[in-house]
Amino acid sequence: MTMHHVSLPPADARSDEILLQARAAFVEKGFDGASMQDLARAAGMSAGNFYRYFPSKSALVEAMINRDIDEVQQHFNAIVSTRDPIGALRRTLMGRLEQDLCSDDRPLWAEIMAVAARKPEIAAILARMENQVADLITRVISLACHLPAEAAAQRYGAHARLIILLVRGASLESAQNPQMQSDLKELIMRTIDKLIGDIVTENAGA
Hints:
Elements: H1 13-29, H2 36-42, H3 47-53, H4 57-80, H5 85-102, H6 106-116, H7 120-144, H8 149-176, H9 182-202
């Protein structure tokens, strides 16, 4: 699928502030429920001025994901600088899962996932995010297991995808069912931990 990137103004304090305010309006009204006028009003701007920063909802979603990817990249930069990158990866994934399960953004992201089924441009943005996160996971595996990057991606790309699916699925389930059972949450965490543990065991002594 070809993704057509939306041209956005350079990131600055003002665009970050606008994005934060618009995100809050999305959380309150939902992706479909919030009009561009609602989003502009939440940012304290005229619709015309708001469009200069974010010409569509797709542009807003892309900007939100870009901010999230930047945050994830910072976490992974910290992971690869530790003496125990696999242990740091485990802790980061568990922390991310806990954060996602407690986030007020869960209903919004659940709605955006649903919107992606009918809007190819949203689906493409989400796919790009998942590709980048999967690449970051396999890069950590490459470093920790002393594997060439290409070999790690080929051998463990599916593992990375499954980890992403588990984290995303847990977040969606908790959005639809706030009383998500603790045993289900623990099972998801154990599954992720076992996937990583299996990779370490397979490459032990290599």
